From TrEMBL:
<dbReference type="InterPro" id="IPR001845">
    <property type="entry name" value="HTH_ArsR_DNA-bd_dom"/>
</dbReference>
<protein>
    <submittedName>
        <fullName>ArsR/SmtB family transcription factor</fullName>
    </submittedName>
</protein>
<dbReference type="InterPro" id="IPR051011">
    <property type="entry name" value="Metal_resp_trans_reg"/>
</dbReference>
<feature type="domain" description="HTH arsR-type">
    <location>
        <begin position="1"/>
        <end position="95"/>
    </location>
</feature>
<keyword id="KW-0805">Transcription regulation</keyword>
<dbReference type="Pfam" id="PF01022">
    <property type="entry name" value="HTH_5"/>
</dbReference>
<dbReference type="InterPro" id="IPR011991">
    <property type="entry name" value="ArsR-like_HTH"/>
</dbReference>
<dbReference type="InterPro" id="IPR036388">
    <property type="entry name" value="WH-like_DNA-bd_sf"/>
</dbReference>
<keyword id="KW-0804">Transcription</keyword>
<keyword id="KW-0238">DNA-binding</keyword>
<dbReference type="InterPro" id="IPR036390">
    <property type="entry name" value="WH_DNA-bd_sf"/>
</dbReference>
Length: 296
């Protein structure tokens, strides 16, 4: 589950702001439990426990179902990520371009693979030939088990403009037939032929529906990914604000006509769990792949 600093996420924060409800989550992390079992562990009445469970259920943190005469509760999420607004060097000017996820210029993928648009699947699922289908331009989500997709976007830097920082923003996840919230995958980023680094995606998520994922997408397949912000500077590369690799701007060819961006799951990856790329109209972030070149 991904949260932000808006009122939409407030029910989750309110649900977690209770020692009793935190203890309930800890108990349910071991196994599903009935109201009576939870009441016994917490030394509380069943009525009070039921009120706490309703709060957790409203927030989407647990689910409950009737089994005979008992109401059994279980955890519905295993990870919560909170994204804070980031201020990024407002004194720099910026050339920014966005790339729809279906506008790749080169690819080599293996099943399971496919493309999805606002109204349904594009071409046939698990057939790499359809990655060259003209309708791919309408894709809002693509996925593949191993291989790569590559994108190109113009390099608008002019003579006399000094590149200070390069940001790549994209929503990514693993790829598993249907979904698997615990399915790690090593996804490698490259820019202009230079390998920047490898991020391990924790899973292929469907614990809740993506905020922008179309209604036609079944509940049990990829719903959303994790927004990753890759930042290359003159002193190294950062991922979501944390040190990532030693690759610097000086390591990148920056005088080319275009920026070439590759997302890849290598054959020798330690965790080869596929890759899903979410674009506008899918996932939790209503955006395409974004590249920002900050300059002075």
């Amino acid at each position: 589950m991904q949260l932000d600093l808006t009122e939409t996420s407030l029910p989750v924060y309110e649900a977690l702001a209770s020692p009793v409800r935190l203890k309930i989550i800890q108990l349910l992390s071991g196994q599903p439990m009935s109201v009576q079992d939870l009441a016994g562990h917490l030394d509380l009445s069943s009525a009070i426990v039921t009120k706490h469970l309703r709060k957790l259920e409203t927030a989407g943190l647990i689910v409950s179902k009737r089994v005979g005469h008992q109401k059994i509760s279980s955890l519905h999420v295993d990870t919560i990520e909170v994204k804070f607004p980031q201020a990024i060097y407002p004194d720099f000017k910026v050339h920014q371009t966005t790339i729809p996820v279906g506008h790749y210029t080169e690819y080599s993928v293996q099943p399971s693979c496919g493309l999805a648009g606002p109204d349904g699947y594009i071409g046939k699922v698990d057939n790499p030939k359809f990655f060259m289908f003209p309708e791919r331009m309408n894709a809002g989500m693509i996925w593949f088990n191993d291989g790569y997709v590559e994108y190109r976007t113009p390099n608008f830097l002019q003579r006399g403009e000094h590149l200070e920082m390069l940001d790549l923003s994209v929503e990514l996840g693993s790829e598993f037939p249907f979904s698997n919230n615990t399915w790690p995958s090593d996804i490698t980023f490259s820019i202009n032929g230079k390998e920047i680094g490898t991020w391990r995606s924790p899973g292929d998520f469907s614990d809740i529906r993506g905020k922008y994922t179309p209604d036609w997408v079944p509940d049990n397949v990829n719903q959303y990914g994790i927004l990753k912000i890759l930042r290359v500077t003159d002193h190294g590369t950062y991922l979501d604000g944390q040190p990532f690799t030693d690759v610097c701007l000086d390591d990148l060819p920056t005088d080319q006509e275009t920026w070439t961006i590759r997302f890849e799951v290598k054959k020798d990856a330690k965790k080869s769990g596929g890759c899903t790329i979410f674009g506008q109209g899918f996932g939790n972030h209503d955006q395409n792949i974004a590249l920002s070149a900050f300059y002075s």
